[in-house]
Design goal:
single chain, Rossmann fold, 4-stranded antiparallel sheet, alpha+beta, 159 residues
Length: 159
């Protein structure tokens, strides 16, 4: 087993690419334990992830499972024209919508049930209410999203 602690910290972009290749080559024949706070590196190099908070394992699984394949909800990002409160109300009243968050960049992040027609239902409801939909697309959870959710749930459980 090889243990690497922050193997790409302080490297230039070319060196990072080289180190990723070395780690992937080693992982083909050896167990490599990568300890890092650089979550995009983890997402690019690792098959399995363990999230530790204050010395306790709070989440562990494959990257695909942690990122949400097979989860009970879908995530969307939308750019919609109109007044925030009216848009939020319209989306929250749409069948299948679980939550709506207005993002600082003028977009909306929407969680829906795992049904196939929710995107169409949101678009129809927004159009009917007179809101212009510039874009609406499904997104995947990032490892950062998973990390924040796991840490928040852990801290909430201990409070």
């Amino acid at each position: 087993m090889l243990v690497l602690d922050e193997p790409t910290a302080g490297l230039d972009p070319r060196q990072i690419i080289d180190i990723r290749g070395v780690i992937k080559d080693l992982a083909a024949e050896h167990t490599v334990l990568l300890s890092t706070h650089i979550l995009p590196e983890v997402a690019m190099m690792c098959e399995r992830v363990i999230i530790i908070n204050e010395g306790r394992i709070i989440a562990q699984d494959t990257m695909a499972n942690l990122a949400g394949s097979g989860r009970d909800k879908r995530l969307f990002e939308a750019e919609i024209l109109g007044e925030d409160a009216a848009i939020m109300k319209c989306l929250q009243e749409t069948r299948g919508v679980l939550s709506v968050e207005a993002a600082p960049d003028g977009k909306y992040r929407i969680a829906t049930e795992q049904e196939s027609r929710t995107g169409a239902a949101m678009t129809a409801a927004l159009n009917k209410a007179g809101h212009g939909v510039n874009s609406l697309h499904e997104t995947k959870r990032t490892l950062e999203d998973v990390f924040i959710e796991a840490i928040s749930a852990d801290e909430g459980a201990r409070a």
